[in-house]
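Replying to the earlier thread about multi-chain prediction with a worked example.

Input:
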Amino acid sequence: MKTVYIYRSFERFWHWTQAFLIFFLVLTGFEVHGSYSFFGFENAVIFHRYAAYSLLVLIVFAIFWHFTTGEWKQYLPTTKFLKAQMDYYILGIFRNSPHPTKKTVLSKLNPLQRITYLVLKILVIPVMVISGLFYIFYRYSSGGFISGLDIENLEPVALIHTAGAYALIAFVVVHVYLITTGHSLLTNLKAMMTGYEDIEDEDETNYKIKNDKEIK
Amino acid sequence: MRKFIIVLSVTIVIVMVAFNIFSDKTYHPTNAVVLKAKYSEKPVKVVDHSKFAALQKDFARPQDLTKTCISCHNKRHLEVMESSHWNWERPDYIEGKGIVYLGKKNIINNFCIGTQSNVKSCAKCHIGFDMTENGKSFTDSTNIDCLVCHDQTNSYVKGANLAGGPDPTVNLTKIAQNVGKPSRDNCGVCHFYGGGGNNVKHGDLDNTMFHPDRSIDIHMDEAGPNLVCTDCHMTENHQIQGKVYSIATLNTERSNCEDCHTETPHKALILNEHTLKVACQTCHIPIYSKGTPTNLDWDWSTAGRLKDGEPYMEEDSLGNHIYKSIKGSFTWGKNIEPDYVWFNGTASHYVLGDKILDTTKAVVLNPLNGSYADKNSKIIPVKIHTANQIFDPITRLIIQPNLYSDNIGEGAFWKDFDWNIASEKGMKAIGLPYSGKYSFIKTEMYWPINHQVAPKEESLTCTNCHQRENSRLAGLNDFYLPGRDYSSLIDLFGFLLILASLVGVLFHGFLRVYFSNKQK
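Result:
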């Protein structure tokens, strides 16, 4: 085991700001949805917009960061060990088996994470951003290009945005639970807060991979 | 030295930016402030009519006075005779019918039904004299009633059933010497009493507006801006801007809030965005009939009951007429939340002679056009007035009955209380058939609410409309309204998804704890 600096400061800033913004967007968004009254409708709408714009700025920086650092490659999907990872969550975890894949600086995400985060990044977030922009601008003169699209009805836009919100909440529930499945309950949480994580040595990892190949 | 220059220039830049930011927040006159200044200056009289030699005499007939007016204002009568106040009609357009001349002259409404065959009584609100069956009320310029609009003594009264002539007690000379621009009193004497009594028709125009305070109308507030009708209903050459869609169909000659205020008068962008689809009145007139009750329903079918052979009337505890033998039963209401409809500025109208094909639902006499999909439509507040009026089930025509005549025995309903004869007489007068059978049919009229604008702190707030229950827009369902609308399917599916995730992770966590304990 050795201590590795795995999450860089921007990455942690991005993660936690995004986490806060999504939480805040859910809180204000469902007030606009009419589910409850908390900030007051007008405030909820205004706060939701400000949070949305903040998230957009953050996303722009994050995209820039991912491409300049090459971190985007972390999300390339792979089927390698995908089955093993699923088996681990379904069976292995209860038998105290070791994680089937090892975290390294070059490969922080397990195959399930890769697919989940990729779907989040290229499907759920874009759908939320685009439907959100349509929602704000769909027929107002301030909307420029979007009002030019001449969207007849807000209903499909609003319903897609609502459905996306439910999907994001479900993701957060599972995500928050799965961070407790590290070496210890708080290993992953601590890593995302401090940037440092205790991970197994390369040798151990290589040994493990070799082992798996032999088993196959 | 270089360091000093850098620090100095940075400091200067910061000071300049700060000064710019703070100076921007100093006095910045908004449109409202400009308007307040403009309307605080009241016009000054430039002419004293009491000094004119031509007006120092008694006038035997009101026509003599009008002649005298015209002798100086020698073109004005031509303008008046162009106006709809005089003609009681103007060219309008009804889809399927083309250009139709609509006005009091020929339409029917939910109240006293129509003027035809009843003009002698109805003429109390015409700006002319001699409105008899064969009179020259619409053609002879000496019949123009200058005083009803220009009297400044507040003593001019038109006589009851005098075909538009003044009450015999009126001192024409005194009033002629005191004329001026129309005040609220001049307009209100007819327009506050439309339908035969105070606030019967409009709901947003009543006699509290002769001397309104802030709570009645923010613009007319006597202690505030103290606007009069013609400040908004701007008038040039006797052509008065603004009209009501009970007798109009075209999106022309209107007075709009935006004529003074801009289309985006709010500080908050999000409110300005609303003006694309929501008329100013919708939020700024949260309730109407604030001063006195307005008539909401008029049931003609109960009219004609007599006590000991005599007509009678009943009042409720508040003094509202709830029954009159001559008119039927009434329902009244005060401080009413308007109904809301889409409106693009055009309307249709029932015209005498239109056959009613579907008698199962209420006939809307003036359907307002508009929908969410129509880019010119906005949501407006309306008073929906309902009535039950006389109808010929054989010809399927709404009947124009003869209501008024001078004497008993001439067939008018208000004297003889016989619907059959009154219908026959009325329909004959307008040249339409009457089968000899009558029944009653439900009718509706839509009265846009434009007056009695509330102080801004009483305007509607977001959740008056954007809420699940009791949204004021509950009746408008052709669009998605955030806060009110949702898909129960998506909400159910989303709820189940979150529930499944929660149950899933809790179960998984439970198993982890269970097995780790077992292994120990």
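Confidence is low (pLDDT under 50) at residues 209-216 of chain A.

Feel free to reuse this layout for your own posts.
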